[in-house]
Amino acid sequence: MTYRVSRDVNTLISEPSEGSVKKRISFIVLVFLVAYVGYAWFSVRALAIGVQKGDIDAIGDHVDFQSVRASLKEQITAALMAKAIHDSSNKNDAGAQIGAGLMATFGPAMIGNFIDGYATPSGIAAFMSTRSEAFEVRGDGFGPMKFFQHASIVSPTRFRLSYGGGTSVVFNFEDWIWKLTDIRVPQNLLDKARS
């Protein structure tokens, strides 16, 4: 016994209408954007909870310490070097010029050692525990999300959260996770270091 299919193949496979394709593409883009923003928020939240609890592993998972250390060294060294140069050029004092020379010679190494010692998961956990009010996770809201004043997308794989006083943190999408890669020190604090 044999059965014959009398339908035309073209009637079985219907092509979607143009409006249907646009709706599907729009839906896929929307889902991608929600996942993109949600994953970034989740990473910031996971880091904040790790900081709040002093969880060194969680902090280490969400912070690229090599990048953070390099950025902090650059910012602080530049500020102190500018102060040393300014002080030595404004004074005809030989002692000020020797001090500027010593600062130029030994300052970057001392700053580097200091930052290398403190910009670690345990160092950040200890430092942030003294500033825990900004990183508390409460029932009425989420600490870091309550205190930032501005969020901006720098690139598809990078965003910045700016806090009061000029502090900002930058997250990059690395190794399939959002990681804190830069802490921008407020200019007023760098100016205080120079004075």
Structural class: alpha+beta
> Averaging pLDDT over every residue, what do you get?
77
> How large is the count of helical segments?
8
Coarse morphology? elongated
Which ranges are low-confidence, i.e. pLDDT below 50, for 5 or more consecutive residues? 137-142
Q: Write down how many β-strands occur, each being a DSSP E stretch of 2 or more residues.
A: 6
State which percent range the strand residues make up: 15-25%
Strand order of the largest sheet: 3-4-5-6
Q: How many structural domains does the protein architecture include?
A: 1
Bin the helical content. 55-70%
Written as H for each helix and E for each strand, in order along the chain, the element string is HHHHHHEEHEEEEH
Radius of gyration: 26 Å
Determine the N-to-C terminus distance. 98 Å
Reported for the largest beta sheet, the result is: 4 strands, antiparallel
Short synopsis of the structure:
The protein is built from 8 helices and 6 strands; from the N terminus they run ααααααββαββββα. By secondary structure, the protein is an alpha+beta fold. The protein has one domain (17-194).
